[in-house]
Amino acid sequence: MEVKGKICLVLSLFVAVCLVSATVSLARSERDPVGVCKLKCEEIRGAKQDEKQECKQTCERYHQDKQRREREGGQGKERGHTGGGSGAGSGQYNIVFADIERELREMVGKCHQSCQGSKGEQENPECFRTCMEQYSPEQGKRRGGGGGDTRSRQMGRQSGREFGKGQQLNNPYVFEDHHFTARLESEQGSVRVLQKFTDRSELFQGIGKYRVAILEAEPQTFVIPNHWDADSLLFVAKGEGTISLINTDSRQNHNIKRGDVFRVPAGISAYLINRHANEKLVLAKILHSISVPGELQTFVGVGAGNPESSFFNAFSNEILQAAFDIDRESLETLFGQQKQEQGMFKKATEEQIRAMSGKEESRTWPFGESKGPYNIYKNKPSVQNDYGNLHEVDSNDYPDLRDINVAFSLFNITQGSMAGPFYNTKTTTVFVVADGVGQFEMACPHLSEQTGGVIDTVPSYEKVSSQLRRGTVVVIPAGHPIVMEASGEQNLEVIGFGLNSDQNEWFPLAGRDNVMSQWEDEAMELTFGVPANEVQKVIQKQNKKLFFKGPVRRGRAFA
Amino acid sequence: MEVKGKICLVLSLFVAVCLVSATVSLARSERDPVGVCKLKCEEIRGAKQDEKQECKQTCERYHQDKQRREREGGQGKERGHTGGGSGAGSGQYNIVFADIERELREMVGKCHQSCQGSKGEQENPECFRTCMEQYSPEQGKRRGGGGGDTRSRQMGRQSGREFGKGQQLNNPYVFEDHHFTARLESEQGSVRVLQKFTDRSELFQGIGKYRVAILEAEPQTFVIPNHWDADSLLFVAKGEGTISLINTDSRQNHNIKRGDVFRVPAGISAYLINRHANEKLVLAKILHSISVPGELQTFVGVGAGNPESSFFNAFSNEILQAAFDIDRESLETLFGQQKQEQGMFKKATEEQIRAMSGKEESRTWPFGESKGPYNIYKNKPSVQNDYGNLHEVDSNDYPDLRDINVAFSLFNITQGSMAGPFYNTKTTTVFVVADGVGQFEMACPHLSEQTGGVIDTVPSYEKVSSQLRRGTVVVIPAGHPIVMEASGEQNLEVIGFGLNSDQNEWFPLAGRDNVMSQWEDEAMELTFGVPANEVQKVIQKQNKKLFFKGPVRRGRAFA
Amino acid sequence: MEVKGKICLVLSLFVAVCLVSATVSLARSERDPVGVCKLKCEEIRGAKQDEKQECKQTCERYHQDKQRREREGGQGKERGHTGGGSGAGSGQYNIVFADIERELREMVGKCHQSCQGSKGEQENPECFRTCMEQYSPEQGKRRGGGGGDTRSRQMGRQSGREFGKGQQLNNPYVFEDHHFTARLESEQGSVRVLQKFTDRSELFQGIGKYRVAILEAEPQTFVIPNHWDADSLLFVAKGEGTISLINTDSRQNHNIKRGDVFRVPAGISAYLINRHANEKLVLAKILHSISVPGELQTFVGVGAGNPESSFFNAFSNEILQAAFDIDRESLETLFGQQKQEQGMFKKATEEQIRAMSGKEESRTWPFGESKGPYNIYKNKPSVQNDYGNLHEVDSNDYPDLRDINVAFSLFNITQGSMAGPFYNTKTTTVFVVADGVGQFEMACPHLSEQTGGVIDTVPSYEKVSSQLRRGTVVVIPAGHPIVMEASGEQNLEVIGFGLNSDQNEWFPLAGRDNVMSQWEDEAMELTFGVPANEVQKVIQKQNKKLFFKGPVRRGRAFA
Asked: Which residue of C has its CA nearest to B204?
């Protein structure tokens, strides 16, 4: 108990790492969790020297336990961790370290969340300690041996269930709140950016240039002009606003509302207002970095709150005076302003809002082919029945999607219903839950395991699953079958960004138009090993397309 | 001798690694050969503790010897190993480890092959030990000092010759049987996939997304429906069959025969039959991964032999019941079948074959621009004479090649003849030997070496060469001159997949239309340092194009 | 002083590494500076054993001091080093090592340059030692604490100023002479290639396939035929010549002169003459590698000076005899020539020059869409005023630029004037100073720093700056604002290669057409926090476009 208290103490430090630190720290900790752990021991305020020493030993011990467990779990388990990625270009140990660290951070994140929410475990240390004990390596091992659902082979799945959340540890496909970092933030709004996909797993190398971000602006808020070194595709998840794109000799004002898809090209300076008096404006964005893969830089010339936040102020005074042909005093008036509290999100007056909205301007448009936003509700859903509907937009509908190679979809799954199983042929889809609660299941191939020295030369699959709630991000690689299910109480609305969407198609695996329905009778016989008419009977029973009545569940499933 | 016996024992364990283990193990062993070696010592059945201990010491010793040899060989030698790749992003030690490990594996592979063939060195331990001794570091060093052909500077070249195989150690451009891994396999057929190019050498970063695979199906065999997360370009090297591609509302059946090129887009579900009563169906494939670069996943819904091999079975029972709208029993009938021996390759009856073949269907084709397979023999050879012929297909002939950016060629070199020297301007070409025996030589630039502290500021080249036989895969980077030569007994047939083929051209370096024939006289004089007419006399003598009468060789050259 | 003398000795060894060693050595030293340092201690000629020992200890000590300084500098500083790149795929320590090593090399390079120029510090050891002391970690720390310009936060900036060069240490954006390596060189000319961008910093991953090279040929010089595994875009910075591209059945001769842009496709064999009797021919090149990203190979068939420098000589004699259908003697006549002094650059006679120039041939052109070189002065400047002018060429003007995805520009900034601030939306621009002296300033975003545990959630920027002189190469990433300024004595001419130029635009940030001029009044008020008319007054004052009168400077600024 003494040691576990210490573990708790040590681990609690990871909360800080996880929730407050910048990307660089995370990158380091993923590579040397023990080192970071020890460093954190040193930093405990008020701790005596021998307490720090014990803390460090706990770091070592925890790590060794963890590694032993990994080893005992055997190769198959390790493979399970890394999924299909054999980790070219990254040492074996890095993979193991990264796994441990990822697991640690997720454990801590969960306990943190369930014990309090916003300011760390200090508020309820007992809860946190108990929670962490549930997840400690020893416990994990014991629970892992408990069996139950023999089909599931992923470590920690049962424990996940016991924890009442239904999410797996070591599941790199799911991202929660704590995987986002606030890049810009003030009382009037925020831009939160999801961690780099490739920082999470090497499985995401194919989408390493893309990032996910969520912008939220309070009612009657102005977001000051800025440009990014990334192409941005935004979806208006909530609210209404006006976005203005600046060219050297013109400006484009566009009113945007819920359901609009809009592209802001890299480097184009833009400002934004939430016109609404009471409602938040929420944008879900895919950013496609154009400079360093997966890295994003924001450029703000003026107004972000303090002098260092203006790129103008990085230049010498002489240079600025010469450029603007003015004296130092005038320069100071504009660029030398003192700290402002509001940062990049400014409270605007009703008059200012009124003046800037309404006057939509659509002169010649130099950026890309489109003339403005595209509303996803403009066309009929591509699939619709009692159990849900699907809206889709691709580059044929909205040519601006072509450059960034992203397609867009919106799933609305009726409460108590489900979508799929289906898969996409080419895109890796990033799903962002816009509203509701539910869960998903994905079939994930993993490398074949040695069984007594003999290699299986058939593929095998395991289930990856998680709870879905507003803000959850799930990444589904190309080819992987998936089911999404809404809870019984609420519709589930999920935004889908299909990355690398060129020539993508999706195929249903059950219900109307499922791929099996086109097999020849002989193919059915040979594949199933039973007469074709028996197969037909089963696969023709379900006559809905894509959206179905959900399974009967005991209520606690979506607790 | 005692120690060498141990070395032999130790090394023999690498045979197992090389031939039976999965990719992950290989990846690990490439990074820590000593660690793997010791691990294997632990696993020797029936060995006593002190024997294991001695085994481990041998691992260390072998490694140290090896490293010392590398060091003594000096920097030039190390550069030779890595060719033109200076190894950005990979530590120096990783390169050295990888080299040692690669050499070890190739040594073992060769000895294994020459001493038995299929089941390991146990069958003839004396042969294997003697063979390995020939290659041990000490031996290698002695032989390496022997000189002989002063033009060749690549380590181990002489020893290669002595071994009677004509292949160089440390030659990352050549792949043999043991570089393939069976991904799907049963008595009725197999899909063998070549290791990732980038696992072999950093030189192959430019083609890291591509993989090579060989599918073989026995006569009258059905390959069950499946899809891959990779675009696939297949060439029918042997036999005839029918391939069926599945869409949601249609199916395309295509008869394929020797010489056909055909593309199966990523994610498209397909099944295949070998229609022939006696002949094998052999497909050579280039796969272009679309998700994780160089990683391939296969998706099989049902029929692969056991429940874990169905992606349907990764989903919860409740989910599947809801999706198919059926009860648990019906579900079990289809998806819960017990182990089948046949895996993904099923023996079909004559009636089943007959029912599924012949009815070629070509309705509207939603996948890409083409209407079906393209036969390489359809057009006349682009080059043809007594010494060989060359067929070529590019995206102008077959638009489906455009997306995957691959061009296709087939060299048929008459026995006793040769093709080249020539080079490709843009493609890196993957040659797969379809039939016959021969050899190739390539001129390979290497980094200039310090000679007494002075850097050469002219380029220099070394020969890379190897035997060719059915199944050998050779990678020739863009710009590198190459010659392929058929043995005196048999024609040599080589399939060429030109990767990154956009705007590629090939240029002959001798014979008709060679690039020198277009030089101005003054350019000849200045370059050769002799009068232009003397040059002309030599370069105009050979009047054949690309294919020439081969050199006079002593018979044992292709032993 | 004793220790510092040793440091000096040790560091002087890095000069050799920096200036004479091949890429592989550099790559290694970037990963283990201490190891390399110690290795170099071993190699000191004439040193006694205990001197070597002390040398090695100094290596350790220097490294530890350096690391401690890094640590004490805190996370913010480390971030500063790596700029926006969080270093995915590379360990923290590698980054730190690389930083130390880079800094070391730059320190040594500078001292080397200022103390002598060409053959090392032996010539003036006292100067070198004093110079190095200025830069030693202890000194750097002391100076760094000195403050002064509170706006600049980059370590060593003040010290840079004190050193009288105006360049920052740890500035990965600037490349000087010592970052080039001679690849081909003789008395008649040279090709110098800039280090790989990604060897310098992970920030340059997005342009990792591109390399910069400078070709210089003496008057009346012939460059023998060769091909590269890279697409080459060349700009004639000086002189005039004739370039000949070889096809199998044709040849294209093109006269080129100052201002010409020309593309040589990968793999196309070409030769070149400097036709002029007295003037050098200077080409600035962007090379786009097509095989291994960032790696370049040159292929020369014959004439480069010694037998190893001919790719023909890498083939067996039997093969060559068969290919050319000639006997061994004739073969020797052409390919077996003895060492020539001239290498790839040959002194040509007036008659040879005359025979090869003038006869421009423009038959059907099989390589790309263009018909020959494009002269940048052909069209009017896109911007021109008293303070400078800008010429631009993109793929609309010259279709050959499309494949290589590069745009081209030429800035001519009048003495005492400046260009910018401006930024490019999409390209990362590689500027090569063709003539003159000046300086640049860039606003560079850096990761927000922790201040007392609170994270800034607004961006912040720092100045990156350096002297510019002929041959300086500067890389400006997309989106980054930049100013270039000419000295008062001489016009500044800068060549700009815009990499990844598709759909790029540039925006002025001051003067006519600056992006702020299109903001609505309310946007100005909300952003600046002052009435719009006050803002307008300032931003409308400067009415020139892009080029402005430079700032008033004390003379020593460009010393």
From this structure: C292
Helix (H) or strand (E) holding B24, with range, is helix B23-31
With bands split at pLDDT 50, 70 and 90, how would you rate the model's confidence at A106?
Answer: low
User: How many other C-beta atoms are found inside a 10 Å radius of the C-beta of residue C23?
Assistant: 22
Q: Which CATH superfamily is domain B187-300+344-374 in?
A: Jelly Rolls (2.60.120.10)
**C424: contact with A, CB 8 A cutoff:** yes
Please, are residues C459 and A299 in contact by the beta-carbon 8 Å criterion?
Answer: yes
How far is CA C263 from its chain centroid?
A: 20
How much is the average pLDDT of C68-73? 54
Residue C73 has pLDDT above 90, yes or no: no
Just give the CATH number of C379-549: 2.60.120.10
Phi-psi region of A503 (alpha: psi -120 to 50; beta: other; left: phi over 0): left
Of the candidates A417, A521, A440, which has an alpha carbon nearest to the alpha carbon of residue B323?
A417
| Rounded Cα–Cα distance for residues A340 and A338 (Å) | 6
Grouping H, G, I as helix, E, B as strand and the rest as coil, residue C436 is coil
Of C94, C247, C304, the CB nearest to B518: C247
Cβ(A357)–Cβ(A239) below 8 Å: no
Tokens (6 digits) for C150: 């509170």
What does the pLDDT read at residue A141? 30
Size of chain C in residues: 559
Percent of chain A with pLDDT over 90: 50
The H or E element containing residue A92 is: helix A92-115
Q: Kindly report, residue by residue over B524-555, the tens digit of the pLDDT.
A: 999 998 899 989 988 999 999 999 999 986 54
Q: Where are the domains of chain B?
A: 2-171, 187-300+344-374, 379-549
CA distance A142 to C302: 71
Task: Assess: ipTM above 0.90.
Answer: no
Q: What is the pLDDT of residues C499-538, one digit of tens each?
A: 999 999 999 999 999 999 999 999 999 999 889 998 998 8
Closest CA to A467 of A213, A237, A168, A148: A168
User: Span C9-18, mean pLDDT?
Assistant: 28
Contact B527 C225 (CB under 8 A): yes
- To test the contact with chain A by mutation, choose from C197, C446, C527 the residue with the greatest count of A C-beta atoms within 10 A, namely C527
CB-based contact (8 Å) between B516 and chain C? yes
Question: Which has more pLDDT, B127 or A37?
Answer: A37
**A348 chain-C contacts, CB cut-off 8 A:** 522, 526
Spatial separation of the C-alpha atoms in residues A253 and A269, rounded to whole Å: 12
Please tell me the distance from the alpha carbon of residue B449 to that of residue B454, in angstroms, as a whole number: 9
Residues on chain C touching A301 (C-beta within 8 angstroms): 509, 516
Decide if C547 contacts C486 (C-beta within 8 A): no
Alpha-carbon distance of A215 to A180, in angstroms, equals 12
The DSSP symbol for C473 reads: E
Q: Please name the amino acid found at residue A130.
A: T
Please, is B478 exposed, middle or buried when counting C-beta atoms within 10 Å of its C-beta (0-12, 13-18, 19+)?
Answer: buried
Question: Which has the closest alpha carbon to B356: B279, B270, B273?
Answer: B273
CB of C510 within 8 Å of any CB in chain A? yes
To which H or E segment does residue C398 belong? none
Nearest CA in chain A to B95: A89
Residues 344-403, chain A: which have Cβ within 8 Å of B?
none
Burial of residue B118, with CB atoms counted within 10 A of its CB: 0-12 exposed, 13-18 middle, 19 or more buried: exposed
C-alpha A364: how far from chain center: 36
Segment A290-314 shows an average pLDDT of 89
Interface test with B, best of C334, C345, C346 (most B CBs within 10 A): C334
* Residue B223 CA: distances (Å) to CA of A212, B184, B188, C92: 40, 10, 9, 48
Judging contacts by C-beta atoms under 8 Å, the chain B residues touching residue A516 are 225, 301
Flag whether residue A199 sits within 8 Å of chain B, measured between CB atoms.
no
